[in-house]
Amino acid sequence: MPNATVPCQYRTGRTLGSGTYAIVKEAIHIKTGKYYACKVINKKLMEGREHMVRNEIAVLKRISSGNRNVVTLHDYFETAHNLYLCFDLCTGGELFDRICAKGNYYEADAAALVRTIFTAVAYIHAGGIVHRDLKPENLLFRTPAEDADIMIADFGLSRVMEGGVGGDKLSLLTEICGTPGYMAPEIFKKTGHGKPVDVWAMGVITYFLLAGYTPFDRESQQAEMEAIIAGDYKFEPHEYWANVTPTAREFIQACLTIDPDKRPTAAECVEHKWLASATPHFVPDPESPTGGPTDLLPHVKKAFNAKGLWRKAAFSIRALNRMTVLAGTGYTFSRDHAEAQKLRENVAVYKEESEKEKMEDASITHQHESDPSSPHTPHSTHSRNASNVKTGEGEPDTLT
For this UniProt entry, which segments traverse the membrane (predicted)? Predict the structure, then answer.
């Protein structure tokens, strides 16, 4: 029996961003006027890979609304051409852009951010979820306000895993996925991975927050992968890390334990003295008359800006590499490969088609019925009370 269609209760706003296989647009709920970020996925592009969207919905239904620092999925539906996922609208920008815009930045600021994010990761893990793509670009602020919540976004690579915090050995994941500089050794080695990969990624993020660059930065992805597998990193240059306490470096080393079985859990990381201590950890500023903390911002901004051009150059090829993995090719393409060019063209065409559709003119179908008894299940547009709609936003698709 075919699904009934109903008028869409959203209208299309501006385009917020573009990812590998999706664009992200503003969606304005017509009755309430509230804004959301809507991931728009062309159905042609997802043929044979519908499980990816089903998986993302399954993940978000488990954890949405349960933690203020995890983005919420508010609605999902489809039209004749596209799939739509509506999330919280986070307008405060990305984590590192926010840091670079500050007047000063101390080790205690980094610790507070890491504590908040790790607490949310522990919540995700307790719900049987592994994120698998934690990185600064997927950490967004809800609003521009100084005290705005930081949000973990983009659960497109996440998976449901059972078997406790570490994940059942029988259900360990083996595919290579993520963003290379933040991926754990066991992902590259294909020995099976689970929740510990998120702890490794948080170790990389913490290093990045304290220095402005990642520990495994290399000239090529091959060299980067080899460094990750070997755990080959240093706290250098000295002038950067002289301003960071041994306690912070010890915390990073614990997160970057090569053996996932010996790596601390997210919950254990939250209890580490660098995060749990009531007294802030800092290196005194030798120029401060009161012995106050050293400002990390000058070095952090210098390192971050130096890597900016390289990151932009690597961006497009990483996006393409992920697309080929999703397509099941089993290998990645060089920039000049004929099939890569064809794939790029198809993705561009499909995303352009998605861009043209106006939600307010479309009829929608809900393939996934909501469960009213579950507090984490998004409401269907055609059956929900408009007063229950929450202001929200989401995340551009992950690029690798």
Answer: none
